[in-house]
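User: Predict the full complex structure for these chains.
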Amino acid sequence: MNTPTRKGAGVRLVDIVKRYGQVVAVKKLSLDIAPGTLVTLLGPSGCGKTTLLRMVAGLETPSEGRIEIGGFDVTSLSARERNVSMVFQSYALFPHMSVEENVAYGLVSSGLNKTDAAARARRALETVGLAGYGLRLPSEMSGGQQQRVAVARALVLEPDVLLFDEPLSNLDARLRRSMREEIRALQQSLGLTAIYVTHDQSEALAVSDRIVVMRAAEIAQAGTPAELYDAPRDVFVATFMGEANHVCATLESVSGERGRVALGEARIDLPHRDLVPGPVDLVIRPEAIDLEAGEGAGLPGRVSKATFMGSHVEYHVDTALGDLFAVVPRTRPLFPAGSVVSVVLDAKGAILVRP
Amino acid sequence: MKRFDLTAVWWLAAALGFAVLPWHMAQEPLRLAEYFALVAADPDIASALAQAAFHGRPWFWPVAASLMAALPGIDARSPRAARARWLLAGGVAGLAAIVVQGWLVGVQGWRYPWLEEIFGVLDERQFGFGIGGTLAFAGCLLMASDGLALKGRFGGERFVSGAVAVLVASIAIFTVWPVLTLLSQIFTVPSDQTLLAATADRLFAPKIWTLACLTSRSNCGVAWNTLALALSTASLATLLGLAFALIVTRTGFRLKRPLRLLTVMPIITPPFVIGLGLILIFGRSGLVNQAASSWLGVELGRWIYGFNGVLLAQVFSFTPTAFLVLIGVVEGVSPTMEEATQTLRASEMRAFRTVTLPLMRPGLANAFLVVFIESIADFGNPVVLGGSFGVLSTEIFFAVVGAQADFGRSATLASILLVYALVAFFLQRRVVGRASYVSMSGKGDAGLPARLPPPVERAAFALALPWAALTVTVYALALAGGFVAVWGRDWTPTLSHFARAFSVDFGTGGIVWSGGAWNSFWTTIQLAGLAAPLTAGIGLLAAWVLARQRFAGRGALEFALMLSFCVPGTVIGVAYVLAYNVPPVEITGTAAILVACFVFRNMPVGVRSGLAAISQLDRSLDEASATLRASTGRTLARVVLPLLRPAIVTALVYSFVRAMTTVSAVIFLVSARHEMATVYIINRVINGDYGIAIAYSTVLIVLMMAAIGLIQLLVGRRRIGRRAAGGAHTLGARA
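Assistant: Here is the predicted structure of the two-chain assembly.
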């Protein structure tokens, strides 16, 4: 990988509020984004993540609060006065202009002469692997190619901040995977600051330096992908970051970093994560559950559904704790539906969270 | 950073208008040198500054003070907040100062007696705003809007705030103010009456409200006449329109395309051509009457003059309108719905009665109300065929022409007509608002439309085909009338009518346009050609602002725009005459009043076609352009407009054609210098000179067809080439 050139600028959101009439779309939100990092805004639809992105772009004005880019207050500046560019969900390629005209559009707007703009547009197209496609119309390209044109059009302006609004949602699954890797590689090699909106957690995990999980107009939790996955603050974040079983438990006592947790009949030793003794929620990742044949040492259960997925098998198991979802590698023995099994927990995949 | 931006230009324009150019409209044409009016001996053609400084007219000083107040705001390097403050304060104060001085000092000194008491008698008078006043007003308006944008309103977009300011100001000046002026006329008091008595006398006059026709052979009041006529016309036209729409969309009829062509005819024919055609058939010397008297010895009399004739003419004129509305409605009924009825074992008849028809009901109501509005606003047909049967639109006219000149009565009638129009307009808005379930089935309309039940199909054909044949006959005869010497008496084929209207001589000084119609012909083309791009431009700008921008008062702006469309033409005509006869805006008798009338009467069509087209454009295209540093102007020019070509064509064609064919408002506004074709024709008709009227109408129709072709060629061609190359037919962002 190339050394980052650190072209991007930091972004600071201070106490941002956005109201549409009575509806509050963003509720007093603050966020710092370090230069050269890619931060993902992740959340269910309607949580305010796109509104937040559009406020950074200058397409919406916050009702309250301040937005800084590279240390300058840009709150009252319009989109075109800010040095940001955006890749739209629908790509928003101008259908009546050629690919090259599309990419050169921003450069010409910024006052560059047409020849230089065209040359730089061609170089940008090269960067995204579309050399030689410049004279086509957007309608003559595939979805993935259109996506790259949109990225090239945003990149060519060398923006302080590059914004992505669910850029891959119109692509098929396979293409989505390769495009997200390309976007990540480009962002890192150019050292760009990027904000990326998505509702797909695997996409977020794959591309981000940091992830901001949003819920109902607020930040639910922000952190690195590993932090969010391994130490979610609550059940919402845990279930949003990948599959998770969620059972009620009781924290009986704490000592040092660890705590003793009562889970039905069983007692397990887990990091207490600053929770006080009492009822807690326990999040169990499906890959932390293993099944053994017969009535072993673990929690007794019965397989209610087994789905063969190739590399792994997905089980639903009826237990005293309720229905548990388990993902077991193909290398383990197979259990058909109806099998009596013993459920074994790997404590590393079990996380205590606030009830 | 640049020292100056566009705001400086606005300030300079305002300063130029204030200090250098003649403030008032000159009564005589000015020589070029006289436009430099800083020092002018005659105060009436001097600049405002000169009038204030040298001619003792101190009411201009506040304007100067406002301009000075705005001056600090033009420096682009000072902080935004400070600029916003100066510009807003100076601009608004300037606007206020200009309006107040224009309003208070009229043609006879102070407008109000109490001013005379304070300042003493004023010998001075002032004329309407001229180039200087207009420029100063525009400059102040744009400075104020720049100030608002700098304050962060309108998303900080100066282009948007400027556009909104211009729209609001022009609607206020050219629609709201005239209509309010008109309404205030109801309350003018003759010297021997109290306000209440005079107003009541006017509003409840028996000539308006009598129901005498129900009990005796005399006439009913014009208000009832209008209502009865409009209800009858709307019912019949909706029924016929539905029959046509069903035939075109739901049967295997071969001649669908010619039927659709029928919808174009009323758009390009002047509104009284149908009336003329009917006279030529059913009038006293018409074909039918002549045949009846010579073969059967029966005198059919003058039945065509009056309610019957006007009704017939209006149904002919407006059935195509209803047809056009209903095609969309019938097509909007999802075939899936009808297929569902088939799978549910419903008979064709039952399906039609219980599903298809109820789904079309809001559309039918819409068509009914659209025709209703057209009928009450119609001037051409009643004036040609009405005889002693008066309706509001014609009575408004007859109240002010000739010796009567009773503006109070005219204003009263106009207000009643306005109320009719508003009620119908509100009903129509509600109906259209609720009509949305027609398209609610959403996706998957892949099914085949059900065939009509045979009885319905037979009924539709039985209604529509004879009517279509009759329509064609009326048009054909109306146009044939221009080629015979005297209809009904002397059937010699001749071109003499054309010669009288459009003869050309070649004299010593070159071509001499000796025909009687040339003057109005050239004026019409000139003014329609001037109005069309203005109308389309303002209309599309308004559409873009409404569709793409969110700001306080957006709903009110849209409402005002659409409302101005429903104000009947005669009402606007009277209102314009009343508002613009006197300063401060004194443009009666000029070409400007005609152009303003065209622009603001027809702009809503531009708005509508623009809104429809823009709503198909993905909003993110605009946003992408904005994030790519394009100014709003550049976004419009490079992205929005190229994708709006079809809407531009529609708006241009429509505004041009309407300007050429309209008669209702224009008949009040023409002057000897600026006569319009339609008014010329109407006057020939009123004099019974049908031949020349028809010849002229024929020429107009041909001219409009040529113009439509030309506009399409100019604006439409490039787009077709590009799009065809792309092979794309949708306008979405992903094309």
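The first strand of chain A starts at residue 11 and ends at 20.
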